Amino acid sequence: MDLTYFSQSIARVKAMENKMLDKAKFEALIEAKDFDEAVRMLQDTVYSNYNIRNFEEGLKKALEDLYFEMYKIVPNKSVVDVLAARYDGHNIKTLIKSKFSNFEFEKVLFEIGTVPLDVLKISIKEENFRDINPILRSYIERALEDFKSNKNPQNIDLIIDKGILKYMLSIAEDSKLEYLVKLVKLIIDMTNIKAFVRIKVQERDREFFKKAFIEDGNIDLDHFLNSFNDSLDSFANKIMHTEHFKWVKGGLEEYIKKHDLGSLEKYGDNYIMDFIKNSKFISFGPDPLIAYIIARENEIRLLRIVLTGKKNGVAPDVIRERLRDTYV
Example GO molecular function term (predicted)? Predict the structure, then answer.
């Protein structure tokens, strides 16, 4: 594919990046005297268009608008689809769980994804998946059958998460865009690493990890199984030859000190930010477009952390410790 195909979209995104919140802005928000002042400080940003006083609702709408805008400006739908598929996963898991409970699900569903929300609702309600991608269909059917047999909602997450990553990889491979394939394989590896650590911490067995393991990444199953009886602090050394060594080592060291798995999540998120920052210097290809979507998602996540903290009177140092790196 001629990568100059994306040049006009990249120019649009570069202009949009100038409106993103930088570290100084986040620092000012953290130091705001209270929630009301933090909300006022956002009036000169793109978030003034949203109901930030009710920030869960406002930030959800901002996220949906991000995807609506990117679908308009990106000439190859696959570039947006490969990331939007994660919201299909969220919607599918929510709809399956709500099917078997009295859970009020409407407010937590996203109007983004590769499958229209109305199609998903009807398909899962009626268990008729003729309008669903074959990969997604097979995993939805598997999750429904498993829950009917085992009544374990955790299995819904395991099955659908695996199916979504398979689906994302198929979108990437069909696009013939090397960067998309590399990104999805990176996400698969990170998902497996986090699952491995969680399962070790929970003292679950090898069979459970085999069930959770997602194929098609760059780190194979045997590599994890051969490390299963080792201590967590030695696991990073077992993947020293991979690009994941630095963030895993940092995350595990902090986890061992604090006993908070959020440390691993934070280091993983920061690694993704470092990965996409290389796209700032790319003039052709989908890289800057993917980077902008992930960067804005990260910005929205950070805003939620800050605003939640300010709303609940959390000390600035505690909020600061919870934040990830910014893109700008």
Answer: proton-transporting ATPase activity, rotational mechanism
Instruction: Copy the structure tokens of residue 152.
Output: 């374990």
Domain membership of residue 51 (yes or no) is no
Give the CATH number for residue 163.
1.20.1690
Which sign does the torsion angle of CA 30, 32, 35, 38 carry?
negative
Is 25 among the domain residues? no
Could you tell me the pLDDT band of residue 6, with boundaries at 50, 70 and 90? confident
Helices 134-150 and 77-99: crossing angle in degrees, nearest 10, is 20
CA–CA–CA angle 297, 301, 305 (5° rounding): 170
Residue 115 domain boundaries: 78-176
Tell me if 122 is assigned to some domain.
Answer: yes
Q: Per residue in 238-295, pLDDT tens?
A: 888 889 999 999 998 888 888 888 888 999 999 999 999 888 777 788 999 999 999 9
Helices 153-175 & 134-150, crossing angle to 10 degrees?
A: 170
Is the model's pTM score more than 0.70? yes
